[in-house]
């Protein structure tokens, strides 16, 4: 696909802003919206036509969508753990936001719609997750993501539009919200260690994950938006060569910072999946995926970026809708 017009939701967020930057560099006309719940106008690259708008308010951005050859839906309340305690907030800003944007995109006659899902769709299935597995999400966030996928597939199949569904692993890199206590474990750990504080680990730290550096994800999303072989496909995006435990992640960061590690262990969070890693075989086959930034190098880039930012306290600015005895004390008592 030759350069055209790309619309990006969540364009002021972590992934959306990097994606916008890549497409601007490729010569595309890039427009986008963001509610700024989790994004910042400082993230929006030069050359992007940006508007503060909620995906659930179709009328506020319908004119921006018109003439778009490609839509990337990156906006989401990507709070897997918090969704157990704030399901309404997460559902509205994930599932409902997707339905509204997909509807608006179809009404505008866009070329292709690339939906960014989450490996939370797989739930506690045996790892590594493969795309042919029947998803079994366990958290409200995972349920919202699977619902979003189903709506995208149904609407675009019914109305004749093109779509693709990306399933990124845990993405890390510069511009990630390093002051958010509810998500982004690597950023939280780095922020605390830079302050001279020990990282907080839920459970025993044995939860196994794979982390994707953002640059490696972008190459796949670009192909999913422009390559015909990705149309109608669900594709895991991210490395499967380096699996690390959450405790191991803390050890990696501590080694980079020469930090004397003595983690603070707190009770496990409800519905947290112990093993969540994906196979990247399909991405290799269809998208030519390969890992170019190993975990240690990606963490070093994050450390450098966060260290260069203005130190700010963690922001507990989201409501806990279901406060119970199961709610992590780290959030209730602002312990992170």
Automatic annotation (TrEMBL):
<protein>
    <submittedName>
        <fullName>SDR family oxidoreductase</fullName>
    </submittedName>
</protein>
<comment type="similarity">
    <text>Belongs to the NAD(P)-dependent epimerase/dehydratase family.</text>
</comment>
<dbReference type="InterPro" id="IPR036291">
    <property type="entry name" value="NAD(P)-bd_dom_sf"/>
</dbReference>
<dbReference type="InterPro" id="IPR001509">
    <property type="entry name" value="Epimerase_deHydtase"/>
</dbReference>
<feature type="domain" description="NAD-dependent epimerase/dehydratase">
    <location>
        <begin position="7"/>
        <end position="238"/>
    </location>
</feature>
<dbReference type="Pfam" id="PF01370">
    <property type="entry name" value="Epimerase"/>
</dbReference>
């Amino acid at each position: 696909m030759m350069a055209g017009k790309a619309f990006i939701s969540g364009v002021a967020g972590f992934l959306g802003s990097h994606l916008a930057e890549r497409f601007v560099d490729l010569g595309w006309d890039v427009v986008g919206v963001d509610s700024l719940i989790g994004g910042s106008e400082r993230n929006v690259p030069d050359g992007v036509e940006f508007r503060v708008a909620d995906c659930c308010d179709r009328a506020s951005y319908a004119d921006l969508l018109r003439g778009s050859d490609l839509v990337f839906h990156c906006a989401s309340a990507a709070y897997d753990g918090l969704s157990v305690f704030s399901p309404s907030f997460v559902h509205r800003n994930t599932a409902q936001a997707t339905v509204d944007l997909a509807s608006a995109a179809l009404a505008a006659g866009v070329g292709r719609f690339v939906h960014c899902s989450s490996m939370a769709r797989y739930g506690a299935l045996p790892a590594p997750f493969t795309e042919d597995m029947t998803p079994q999400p366990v958290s409200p966030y995972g349920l919202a993501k699977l619902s979003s996928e189903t709506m995208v597939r149904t609407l675009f199949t019914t109305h004749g539009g093109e779509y693709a569904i990306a399933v990124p692993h845990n993405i890390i890199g510069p511009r990630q919200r390093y002051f958010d206590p509810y998500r982004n474990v690597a950023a939280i750990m780095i922020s605390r260690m830079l302050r001279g504080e020990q990282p907080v680990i839920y459970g025993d730290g044995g939860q196994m994950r794979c982390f994707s550096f953002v640059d490696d994800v972008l190459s796949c999303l670009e192909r999913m938006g422009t390559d015909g072989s990705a149309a109608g496909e669900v594709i895991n995006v991210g490395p499967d060569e380096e699996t690390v435990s959450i405790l191991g992640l803390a050890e990696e960061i501590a080694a980079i910072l020469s930090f004397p590690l003595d983690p603070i262990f707190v009770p496990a969070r409800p519905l947290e999946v112990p093993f969540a890693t994906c196979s990247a075989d399909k991405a290799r086959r269809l998208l030519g995926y390969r890992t170019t930034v190993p975990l240690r190098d990606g963490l070093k880039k994050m450390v450098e970026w966060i260290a260069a930012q203005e130190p700010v306290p963690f922001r507990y600015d989201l409501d806990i809708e279901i406060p119970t005895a199961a709610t992590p004390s780290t959030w209730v008592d602002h312990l992170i």
